[in-house]
Specification:
Layout: E1 3-6, E2 9-16, E3 19-26, H1 37-43, E4 47-52, H2 71-85, E5 90-95, H3 97-108, E6 113-119, H4 128-142, H5 144-155, H6 161-174, H7 177-187, H8 193-198, E7 203-208, H9 216-225, E8 229-234, H10 241-244, H11 246-257
Parallel strand pairs: 3-4, 3-5, 5-6, 6-7, 7-8
Antiparallel strand pairs: 1-2, 2-4
Amino acid sequence: MPFAENEGLKIYYEFSEGKSPALVFVHGWTANMNYWKEQRAYFEGKNAILLIDNRGHGKSDKPKDYEYYRLEKFVSDLDAVINSLKLSDFVLVGHSFGTMISMKYCSEHPDKVKALVLVGGGTRIKTFHKFFYPISRFFSKINYKSSVKLVINLSFAKEAVELKEWALKQVLENTPRYSAMNCYKTLTKIDLREVAKKIEKPTLIIVGEKDALLPVEKSKELQKLIRNSKVVVIPKAGHCVQLEKPEIVNKEIEEFCAKFMG
C-alpha cells in the first residue's frame, strides 16, 4: 500500500494518473478518503487524482497524543504526500475540516496550488462547539457509537438515511475515539479569517442548503474574505453535500477546473 512518511508517521494515499490539473482531495473530521467516492468515480480517468487519509483516520497512522493533531501537522502531512509524488499546479479540494487544512496549505504553498475548491467549509466552527467539547468528550467515553450517530445526523440532510448508515460504519471502522476527540479539540481552536484574506487563488465554494455543522453563512463569510471566489448553494443537501448530491457537485467542480485544463 502507498504511504508517505512524515515525522515518523505513515500517511496513506491513493493516486491515479490523468490529465492536468490533478485533483487533490482532503477529507474532513472523522471521515476518510471514501467520503470522496463519488468524485473519484466521476473524475478518475479524466484528471489525475490524489486521495489522502488524514493522520488518525482511515489507513494512516493514528497516534494518541493531542500534540500530533494540531492543524499544522495535517498541513505538513499533505505536503509530504504531494512532495513524494512531485505534484504541482493542482486543484486542492477540501471538505469540512479539510477546507481548513486546504486553506492553510494554500497560504503556505501558493506556488504549488492552481485553485481551491472548498466544500462545506469555513474559517472557524460555530461558537457553541467550544463549550460543547468537554461535554462531548465525556459522553463519547461512555458511548462512542451514540456520539458518532449524533454527529452523522447533523452531517446529512434528513432524507439521506442510507448514507447515514454507511457513514456510521465508516467512522466506527476507521476513526478511533481518541483521534476524533483530538481533532475536535483542534477544531475548537481554529480561526483562519486572516489566512483566508491572503488567499489569491481562484476559489469555488460549495455548500449544502441544509448544512447544520458549517452552515451557509460560513461559506458566505469565506466568499467575502477570499477575493477571487464564488459560492454555490446546493438545495436540499446537508454538510456532506459531495455524497448527497454528487452529480451537481461533480459538474460544478468539472466546470470550474475546465478553466485550468492543459
